[in-house]
Request: fold
Amino acid sequence: MEPLIIKETEDTPEIIFDPIDDIFKISKISVPEDAYEFYEPIIGWLKSYANKPNDETIVEFDLEYVNTASSKQLIQVILALEEVARNGNVVAKWYYEEIDEDMQALGERYAKLVDVKFEFIEI
Amino acid sequence: MFDDNLFDKAFNLFSRVEKQDFEYVYRGYFTHNITKKILVLADSNIQKSVERTTIQKRIYYIMVEGLQNITRHQDDLDNNGADKYPGIFAIQKRKERYYVTTGNLVLNDKIPALKKKITKINSLEKDELKKFHKEVLRAGVISNKGGAGLGLIEMSRKSGNKLVASFELVNEEYSYFYLQTQIPTTNKEKLDSDVQDLKLRKSLISIKKLHLSLIIENIILYFNGFFNQENLLSLLAIIKGRMHMSITTIRLSNVMVEMIQNIIKHGAQRSEEINGAPGVFFLRQKENSDFTLTSGNYVENEDASELKDTLTFINSKTDSQISEYYDKILLDIELGDSKKSGLGLSDLRIKSGKKLEYSFHEVEKGIHFYILQTTVINLKK
Reply:
């Protein structure tokens, strides 16, 4: 499957979904006005990837800011990972700054709501 | 749910600025980084309202000079002075004119020399000013602060107007030095110089009053005008530049994003031309205590009653109930991120750990002015 690479902007994150090099990463900042528009193709890509995923898919979430509109879309991303997990192993690695309780809490919320294995990494 | 007095204050601030105009004030310590972001924010708002690039460049130049003036003088002060009496930078658009105003602390014994420089500059006509500029440049008399009034001369030349200065005694040692430059965007009839002078003085008095109310209310950041994503990102960068990385800063940024995006998404009376919704936002902090964030914008009748319901609902819940509710809306695709869902408001409630304060007032038929206030606890007290 063709990798999905989206460069970061001032208000949207960098996306690297590359099954060939085995890198899956969402990083930096996510505070767009229209989060749906930004995340729709990403969720779509994951849903197709779910049909024939790698044996193991480790997705890194390394985000600095997330607005509520994005948090609503991110859960859809993670729900799509649930589908991936039906045909392969999936681990969501959730990074957060030591001081950033809110980012930690958001990851824990997702882990509770979705059936995907989460690992928390304090940086 | 809200102190009416505060509504009046917020609404009065908002009403200072007429439609199509804006006003932006930063009050606090100026670092290189903050200065840069202030310029970006100011410039993007100018770009939207000025078509003539020459004028835009001039305004930019004047802002740079003004900001450099502040940072230069700020370095002169001992920490106590700079902390207690922070500088102020303001850019305003009023009808066809821009006003750039700086206010900063100067040593009282420097005032006579400053006054002399300004009087001299103001006494010169365009050609004389050009000549004087060359003279000063050639003489190379550079004061230890890098300026022999060159900045002042340039500000006057670029604006094509007299400089307006005023000094306000703070204590035995210091005074506030206010400097205002006015930049017209049209070449309409040349006003009689006395009338011009009077207009300038009036406008400086108005900003001194604003400065005073910002001091009284402990407002450190104030933006009044059209809100869009671009402005939000600049304001965010200013907050980041102002404080050390801490949970308080992170939370403050998060809360600010939600509040301003609320205006951007749901604010009424928007302008297609300028791209954004009119509103007011300010951040308050009394010394090192908690932060209070206030936003104000128009909403239509129907939205106002929905918002009221959502706010009442959110405030009636306990912390754990609101957290459960948050989970529910996160998973509910139907609700999307519509204003009905209250996801943003629930998030504000969770992050501030307090009930949300709000107020609605019908300002004209069918249109309400909606004020929302949140608190971010300063954990590094």
Remarks:
- Chain B has two domains: 31-217, 247-376.
